[in-house]
Amino acid sequence: MNRNHVCALALLTMACGAPPPTVDKKIEPPKPTLTKRAFGSVDGQTATLYTLTNSRGMTAAVTDYGATLVSIRAANKAGQFEDVVLGFDNIEGFVKAVGPYFGSIVGRYGNRIAKGRFTLNGVTHKLATNNGANHLHGGLKGFDKMLWKASESESPDGPAVTFEYVSKDGEEGYPGTLTSRVTYTLTPMNALRIQYEMSSDKDTIANLTNHAYFNLSGDPARGVQDHEFEIRADRYTPVDAGLIPTGELASVEGTPFDFRKPERLGPRMNAQHPQIKIGNGIDHNFVLNSEAGTLRPVVIVREPRSGRVMEVSTTEPGVQFYTGNFLDGTIKGRGGAAYQQRAAFCLETQRFPDSPNQAKFPSAVVKAGEKRTSETAFKFWAE
Ligand code: BGC
């Protein structure tokens, strides 16, 4: 633009009566917010959708039905926000989808218990069996299909919602009345933090986890093969044909389960390996290296196209890495998208599968009158 152009532009602006340019207007970052709206009804009761937004514009939406994580909108490298978890536009989708546990809190025992049987304090308990001969994710009606009681809060760490569910003594065969509280907080550092608290009036077992399905590309139709995984685990727990751990803590060395350096998922979940054959892909518990009990980063996932990165931190000893092997395109999710096999992956931080029947696995017992807590965080950035 030459000098004449600049003058012409100035004259034009004055002629149109435009206000003089504002000087020094400070742009405030948006305030974190927590909004809620009706999300449909379940058994005649209204489910609510809570949307947490942080000062960077990232959002996470959760509902009291199943204490479910419905959506996470995180920015890609161009600053575009897209959903990185599978879900539905309304509650009906979550109610109808029996089996995949999209975004739910699974419990009382997330993962499998062999033959739905375990012995505690000399008494053998018989649980509902809903996965062949085994018990999976809490039984016929697990925590994912319950309406939890919600309370909202604002903390310096960000907007938060706590869900509480009281599971009665004998529910699905479990001993003791177990009170579970799950708090979702969206922090200014783009971490969705999930804090768990469990207490019981009798000794019991519990293994609550979140069952979100992630696809960091923002487009589930792309599948997950190009995601790169780094998992800080030297060992994993091989399984039998029913996906019950054999009890061995096997080295990942020389197997498709070695993600100690970042590896593309595609070749790993399609590898020729007897364990991959059993799982129909990866569906295995990884034994996390560093000591459980403190929050430490355990998994880093990168999706090269979008540039999104997700870091998973947990206080738990294990993580179930599941590559969406049983999705088959029959479920139509958000915006009508058909969720095909391996459209997304889950990272379920946990005690090990079948811990109650494996003396060498970390205990899943909740002692009467004692509080057990754990924490997992999913943090996002783009590069
Ligand atoms: C299990 C899979 C199961 C999936 C959905 C995962 O936690 O490991 O075997 O198919 O949940 O139920």
Secondary structure topology:
Blueprint: H1 3-15, E1 33-42, E2 45-53, E3 59-63, E4 68-75, E5 81-83, H2 91-96, E6 105-106, E7 112-113, E8 117-120, E9 123-126, E10 135-136, E11 149-155, E12 158-167, E13 178-186, E14 191-200, E15 204-205, E16 209-210, E17 228-231, E18 235-237, E19 250-251, E20 263-264, H3 265-269, H4 274-279, E21 283-287, E22 296-303, E23 308-314, E24 318-322, E25 346-350, E26 365-366, E27 371-382
Antiparallel strand pairs: 1-2, 2-3, 3-4, 4-5, 6-16, 7-10, 8-9, 11-12, 12-13, 13-14, 14-27, 15-26, 17-20, 17-22, 18-19, 18-21, 21-24, 22-23, 23-27, 24-25
This protein binds beta-D-glucopyranose.
Question: So, CATH architecture?
Answer: Distorted Sandwich
CATH top level is Mainly Beta
Q: What is the approximate shape?
A: globular
Overall radius of gyration? 23 Å
Percent helix range: under 10%
Widest sheet: strand ordering: 11-12-13-14-27-23-22-17-20
Ligand inventory: beta-D-glucopyranose
Count of all domains: 1
Most strands sheet: 9 strands, antiparallel
Number of helices: 4
Strand content: 35-45%
Terminal CA distance reads: 35 Å
CATH topology: Beta-galactosidase, Chain A, domain 5
Round the mean pLDDT to the nearest integer and report it.
Answer: 94
| Secondary structure: number of strands | 27
**Spans where pLDDT lies below 50 across 5 or more residues:** 1-21
